[in-house]
Amino acid sequence: MTKIIGLTGGIGSGKTTIAKYIQSLGIPVYIADDAAKKIMELPETISSIKQVFGSEVFENEKLSKEKLAKIVFNNSQNLKQLNQIVHPAVKRDFDEWFSKQKGFPFVVKEAAILFESGSYKDCDAIITVEAPLDTRIQRVIKRDNTNLESVMSRVNNQWTDEMRATKSDYVVENVDIKKAMLQIDEILKKMTNQ
Fold this sequence. Notes:
Layout: E1 3-9, H1 15-24, E2 29-31, H2 32-39, H3 43-53, E3 58-59, E4 62-63, H4 65-72, H5 76-99, E5 106-110, E6 125-130, H6 133-144, H7 148-155, H8 161-166, E7 170-173, H9 177-193
Parallel strand pairs: 1-5, 1-6, 2-5, 6-7
Antiparallel strand pairs: 3-4
């Protein structure tokens, strides 16, 4: 039976870099954020978003992710409504992907909000990637060409590192990527031998 390893961490922690490293080792990795981006472009998702948030989150009939982000990351009720549209579709997409991963001892499901969405319950083990908050903020500002206020609105809608760590089987410190990869190698060795 193929196990599901959850991989999570706060915005800017480097979890996607870690996920890509794991993928480079030949282990199947599902990146929930990538799936969610595709799902948000589907006609049925667009229709649901328009019903809930109205046409003000659209520009020339195209969903404006910036406008939507401003609305949802500054209002927890709005975020909850968006998650109710997107999360069930991501879960179905993951289940379909997982059913095709035969013959692997485990796969990795990378998701920023693994705990917040409840999908951690489907995991056999969980790895949390951590980095100091100021490091994470600088990474996101540089990566997304954004500002402190925008990053903090996202940080404040996620669990803290401490909250994630208490529910995780493994915690990887990602300040130095080479050291983080060595930690991942050790964890994967343990997972393979279980």
